[in-house]
Amino acid sequence: MPLAVIHSRDDDGRAVVGVPISNRPGTYARLYAADYEAILNDHGTTPWFVNDNGSGRLYVRLYVRLGGTDRPNNVMVSRLVLGDFDAPVIRYRDGDRLNLRSRNLDAVRPAPQRRVSERPNRAFRGLASLPA
Questions:
Q1: Cα dihedral 30→36→40→41 (10° resolution)
Q2: Strand partners of residue 20
Q3: DSSP secondary structure letter of residue 110
Q4: Is the overall model pTM greater than 0.90, yes or no?
């Protein structure tokens, strides 16, 4: 039997749900009710769980079928909330990885790398002012 979702309101009055984490009794991930409903509509009522990335950081995940595959994928719920699977990093503004409200999440992309030919040549700075 699935655990009950807790319904409440955020400080700004938006509807929030607390989704129970199946492998951590008494622990809940929090997100906006609209985001939760969208995940339910797209992926059903699969249990949510946390796993460790090997460095002590926990991430809320669930198994979903993406791209018409038959095999379920272990997906971070924060990526489902943001709808971004390409960003290399998801940043949690308040540092709480159980706070999956969209206002707490940022998809972080590295700055584009400039080619060597576009970088200023700092080795020759000031040589133009030397006498010939």
A1: -170
A2: 28
A3: P
A4: no
